Amino acid sequence: xxLVVNGFELRDPLPDAHTFLNTYQSVRDEALMLCTQPVKxxxxxxxxxxxxxxxxxxxxxxxKVTILGTDDATTCQxxxxxxxxxxxxxxAHIDGxxxxxxxxxxxxxxxxxxxxxxxxxxxLHIVGGFCDAGGYSEQLIMSLLNAFQKQHIHVHxxxxxxxELNDILRGNIHWPIIYGxxxxxxxxxxxxxSFPDRGPDIALRSxxxxxxxxxxxxxxxxxxxxxxxxxxxYDPMRGVDLWLSQGDDFIRQxxxxxxxxxxxxxxxxxxxxxxxxxxxxYPDVTIFPDNKARLYRKDDSGQWIRIRSHYVLAMR
Length: 316
What we know:
By secondary structure, this protein is an alpha/beta fold. The protein has a domain at 3-199 and 213-231: CATH 3.30.1330.200. It is 29% helix and 26% strand. The protein is built from ten helices and 19 strands. It has an eight-stranded mixed β-sheet, sandwiched between helices. A five-stranded mixed β-sheet has the order 3-14-13-6-4, with no helix packed on it. Strand 13 and strand 14 (190-194) form a beta hairpin. Helix 3 crosses helix 4. The protein is globular and about 55 Å long. The chain starts with a strand and ends with a helix.
């Protein structure tokens, strides 16, 4: 079914990103309002952090998670799909890998979570990317919009804060204005955000980005309030010792699509992931020996506590 903007169904082939962004004033207005909001620093209480190449879904009935959030999106884009009737919401951090499969899975999940509602309205918000020299952001937004055009539900495009609408020129360098986004699950409020606490196993979760696993993973069971890490595997990374011996500038230049505008902690986070790959070249053997996910539940202080699968089975 087609995307819907301002009540009009977009049945014709979509134009290029620049033309699309300049056709719909309401989309530009939403982007401007979002870009002028201050960035909120979000703590761990109630937070479910969605890493790159991950997605998660929940509802306002969730007793553990009140904020879905992600950041460090340069050429990546963050999508939020929300049913305004039930409040069910999905968030994904997309980098160009597995786009069509991810969009299909997200649309299926939002339907599952809002299936009892008669007056469903699915609203789509996409934030991230900028006028990068390689044109990665523009390619990605067109891939995402085209993927949504193929889905079996009507999706109302509300926010498209991407590419030139999320771009600022500093000197001769284009920068993204918004790097991260949060959504309040209870109210539906969307806001620019940064997340010092990203939850458990973040080096493991990020290792997939550098070792050949392209699927966008669902990381959360909202019925059981469980964060799921894996199971997954990746290819051993050739020359990981050599990568770890390089300086920060070298890592930024060779392992980023936008090295000039990466946040200051980029190289340190990449090193942590590379170190994990070095120590665990075969995660199916050392991390997921029984092909079972590592499971976590959030406590009242906001920390994710590891739990064992037999405990979960006993609860069911």
